[in-house]
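Late entry, uridine-diphosphate-N-acetylglucosamine complex.
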Amino acid sequence: MRKLLIEGKKTLSGSIEISGSKNSTLPILAATILNNKTVIKNIPYVNDVFTMVDLLKFIGLKCHFLKKQKSIQITNDKTNINTVAPYKLVKTMRAGVLVLGPLLAKYKKAKVSLPGGCAIGTRPVDLHLFALKKLGAKIKIKNGYIIASAEKGLHGTNIKFPNISVGATENALLASALATGTTVIENCAIEPEIQDLIGFLRKMGLKITILGRKISVSGKIEPKKISHKVISDRIELGTYLIAGALTSKKITFKNIDTSFIKKEIETLKTMGVKMNIKKNYIEVFRSNNLKKINIKTQPYPGFPTDLQAQIMILMTQATGQSKITENIFENRFMHVPELRRMGAKIEIRNNVANISGPSSLTGAEVMATDLRASVSLVLAGLIADKRTSINRIYHLERGYQDLEKKLKNCKASIKKV
Ligand code: UD1
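Prediction complete; structure with ligand written out below:
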């Protein structure tokens, strides 16, 4: 099995180009089912994107990567469409369930495997199904599959979510794209990735307005040739900003939009991280005398759960006791036992982690459990004494493009073996 070996305590410097957002690319790929010809630019070359493309090909779309241009061309010529998302493609990546909305809207039926649980929690899809039923779908669960139909098509309605879900909001948007009349989605997620999906749907002719946590969708889709550049990955940027705050003489970033990471910037500033910030540019410097902080993970514009594991590493270097309250996923402290083996002082009670610092971390052989937990172990390895060896790195390859190369270019000692 492949491992990542890191020799810690190196001073990093250089520049990192941030890839396109994985979490933007996945729903936009699902949305291409609704269109005829699409070019998506700035896509990250990561395994979750490849899995979604395999799923689109299974459904019958023609997909052609243009690696040099970081883009993909997708054609739906409406022949041989298979309205099924099989278990083998949905089990490795939950976002596969996002094809449910567009398949149902366009072909009036869909059979999509239930994604099942994952390391960070049970992750049900009840909110996705709630929205689709409101739009007029009939849904049964049979043999591990969601079997959905809407013989007369979907109709616009009012969907008020009991809880905020990114994926359910995306499925509701994708399904309402071909519904008759107007759909109003309330208490929805408004992550930048959702705003990007809305930008894409608007290019197809839909009228979409956002007011707080209320989105209204009306108008008619006119399938046509569309080109769309996905936004850059705010979670990748946040991850490398933390790497820079821990280790760097100076790291600069390219292909970014700092307007999406206001909460993250505010948090890092409060901790005493030194940065120079402009709209499309940041410099970050190693920051001594880091201050403790208490944070809560929340839906956007709150602090993202996808950066929780990474900020925890910065907290191990801050003076005093910091606190993280994880409000989104019930089991998202899987990285903590491994960090403790590296010398971190972290106590967990229910959904709260108390992190005491500063503590010196020492290299160890550790095991990654999910995407963001894995990258937090990389950050820990960068500041640990001696060698850290990270197992199960396939998690990293699901969501971080060229992680090893990007860090190596900044003078980190890191290699895959
Ligand atoms: C997306 C992101 C993921 C991020 C998460 C929260 C993608 C591909 N993934 O995941 O990286 O960590 O948002 O920002 O964009 N829930 C239900 N019922 C449902 C759906 C969700 O109870 O039908 C719960 C989940 O278990 C979780 C919470 O709602 O506790 C939020 O999940 P959700 O926002 O749906 O996350 P994802 O869309 O799966």
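The chain has 14 helices and 24 strands. Will revisit in the morning.
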